[in-house]
Amino acid sequence: MLVGALRGDAGRAERLIAGIVVLVVATVIACWALLSLAEASDDVTLTVIVLGGSAVTLGFALAPIIASATDPLDPRRFALLGLRHASLAGGLVLAGILSVPVAALTAVAVCASIAWGAHGASSAAGVTGVVLTVLTCVLLARVCMALTTLFLSERRSRELSGLFIMAILVVVVPVGVFLSSLEWDGAVPTQLYEAVSVLALTPFGAAWAYPGLAASGASGAVGSLLVALATVFVLAGAWLLLVRRLLTTTALPAPTRERGGLGWFAVAPGTPGGAVAARSLIYWLGDRRHIVNVLVIPVAAALTIVPLLIAGVPPYLVALIPVPFAALFLGWLPHNDVAYDATAVWMHVASGIRGVSDRIGRLVPVLLIGVPLLALAIPISIAIHGRWALLPAMVGVCVSLFFTGLGLSSISSVVAPYAVSPPGESPFRQPQRTGASGAIAQGLVMVGVVVLSAPTLWYAWIALTGDIEAATVALWAGVGTGVVVLAVGVAIGSAVFSRRGDRIMEFAESV
């Protein structure tokens, strides 16, 4: 199978060889870096190995989900051989070990073991760590590939891969900003060491951390060993069950071009709410009226900086202003989303879908845009400010403004829609309006968000000016306010949509 992977057209072989070369170079660099830890302190060694090893283990879990490649070790390929389920499961795991990525992983794990040996780890602990690391990654890749085969074989697409990549960025960028903001001063910062200690007791970092913890005689060594062993046994059991399931179920048909061309409809769940979400995503990502609205938000948030700096406000305080403004406008965006459908809203009304499906489905595009944007902007803002203790308060303020805006917008868009530029027209061309209903609806949503978020803003101000303990209060106040208002807003908006279907159609036909 390894030789067969190089067969086929020349372009495929060249890409595969280039990937192998990149992997070999990365492995050599990683091994050199790990061997250089022999002269580092125990804390630095533990931090580097656990963080890097956890990222590698997570990569083995995510790669089968993100990639759209067919599994060459799919148990269904061996169904005609009549093998016992346990024998086949074990054989496929052993075959999975004989691969280039696992060879690179083994080399990195061995170098980590050598680094731990320089810090006093026994040979038994080092070998145990290597074995547990390799088995964890191989089993994790097998399990994730089997789950992908069962549930995502027809739904993998560039949209789904984009969602996974976005999710990775949401995690990687804040972590990178946090790490870059720490002051090392020749030693591992306390916050980072505490995070590593927790990570060492998780399935991702336990096997990597065990030799080092055992060498230092730390109390967490036994815990890491037990977690690593339990992870291997649980993954082995899950793999055995998945092999049995794959061999006793009919394979899903291969995706056709028509199926693959459905885009977001192929990714979204096959429910009324999923259909509304897919349709909304297509409009939000393809309609220039929506695109302009989204692009204006970071510009408007950035413009708030200029007058504050001119007025003499210190830059470290100004850094905290744009992100809450962006959260406010993101929550405000869908306050008139029904009007942007124009006459296409008849599909929702004529199909008789429940109001809750319409309301939740329409919020999906804003959530997919707003959550990653805020997750990336909040840590950057706090890093520029320089006081990470305010992070909970900033999260609470943004969650309250964003979710409260979504809740009130869910009501406003069906209670008081107003005319907008029709599809295909310039987003900067606004139709003439005979009344002030549009301005009133916009203003009420904006004012309502600020009023409902006032307690959270007050506690965040206290945390900024005096008592830092108020940051935690601001966090929970913001999360509680945002979630409650969002739930209530969706419930009210759903009821109004179900009752005012004829009025909504009349509005769509009249604009």
Coarse morphology: globular
In terms of structural class, how would the helical and strand content be classed? mainly alpha
Tally of DSSP β-strands: 0
Radius of gyration: 27 Å
Instruction: Give the helix level as a range of percent.
Output: over 70%
Q: Mind describing the biggest β-sheet?
A: none
- Rounded to the nearest angstrom, the distance between the terminal CA atoms is 63 Å
The unreliable regions are 255-260
Question: Mean of the pLDDT scores?
Answer: 80
Q: How many independent structural domains?
A: 2
Number of helices: 24
Organism: Microbacterium awajiense
Keywords: Membrane, Transmembrane, Transmembrane helix
Protein name: ABC-2 type transport system permease protein
Which properties best describe this structure?
511 residues; mainly alpha; 2 domains; 24 helices; 74% helix
Description:
The longest helix is centred in the C-terminal third of the chain and has 31 residues, at 355-385. This protein has 511 residues and is mostly helical. The protein has 24 helices and no strands. It is globular.
Task: Produce a short descriptive summary.
This protein is an all-alpha fold and 511 residues long. It contains 24 helices and no strands.
Give the secondary structure arrangement, pairings included.
Blueprint: H1 10-35, H2 42-66, H3 85-97, H4 100-118, H5 123-151, H6 158-181, H7 190-199, H8 206-216, H9 220-247, H10 257-260, H11 264-267, H12 272-286, H13 288-303, H14 305-310, H15 315-318, H16 322-332, H17 337-341, H18 346-350, H19 355-385, H20 391-415, H21 437-452, H22 454-465, H23 470-499, H24 501-510
